Amino acid sequence: MIAFIVRRLVQAALVMLAVAFIAFAMFNFVGDPVAIIAGQDLPAEQRIQLRKDLGLDDPMPVRFARFVGNAVQGNFGLSYRTTQPVGGMIAERLPATLELSFVAALFALFAGIPMGVFAGLYPNSWISRLMMTVSLIGVSLPTFLIGILLIYIFAVLLGWLPSFGRGEVIRLGFWSTGLLTLDGLKAIILPAITLGLFQLTLIMRLVRAEMLEVLRTDYIKFARARGLSNRAVHFGHALKNTMVPVITITGLQLGAIIAFAIITETVFSWPGVGLLFLQSVLYADIPVMSTYLVMIGLVFVVINLIVDMLYFVVDPRLRAQGARAGGAK
Known about the structure:
By secondary structure, the chain is mostly helical. It has one domain: MetI-like fold (Orthogonal Bundle). 77% of the residues lie in helices and 2% in strands. It has 14 helices and two strands. It has a two-stranded antiparallel ribbon with strand order 1-2. It starts with a helix and ends with a helix. The model has no long low-confidence stretch (mean pLDDT 78).
């Protein structure tokens, strides 16, 4: 287990170095930082001095090492658009994105897994057929269209929920949350459903397919022959063995929820990192764009590491292989 974690940590470090190099390349190949910061009217002498102050005349390996060192310390420079520290701008908006992603992921998991189990156990029932038909809608419709439809129905026609913003938030130290206020809870419902609907349908269809496959295996037939109850067979054996691919997809989709919350945050004017990234693209704010890229890379690396470790908890075959490898040594 320890050797496995060490290997994964080394791989994670290499991946983050690759992501950092891509983010660093944005500074060097996407426009001239001096021209973006100071404009074209700055005198040549001042432009040369500004390049020296920014360290743009240093060799590329030196600049890359400086970029990685600053990134490790949380220093990503100043925004070209607002001249504020990028780390502070990200930290201010990150709670909104993480909160939205967390609620969307919970919605997808707690609705998708039971629906998938039911559809797998009773594939011919009319409820299962209805769920599969509705899931096609969730997979086919683009996220922005789902958000617009939800706004039109629940905000415009019915007037039950707000159509934009985060609502009232409470600050708990450096963290801000809207989950402790009624206004904040109402504001997060539509964005969370919009962001989590695709993941819900994906998880539901995956769990259904895995349940149908597992229920046909020999060890399930043997468990039934031993006289075990349907509850024990379905949830003690079948569901547990469907969790390995579900954990993989769920982990990757959680990273995707955070990475691709841009569209949802734009539709609902949600003040998160995704909306900040979109505004940075419009103004060619390279420090913010590169910081966002590094942050998303870190999210995927951490989630993949957690998913790999969860395999040992869920899949006994991996634990057995690890024990045999340790005994062979």
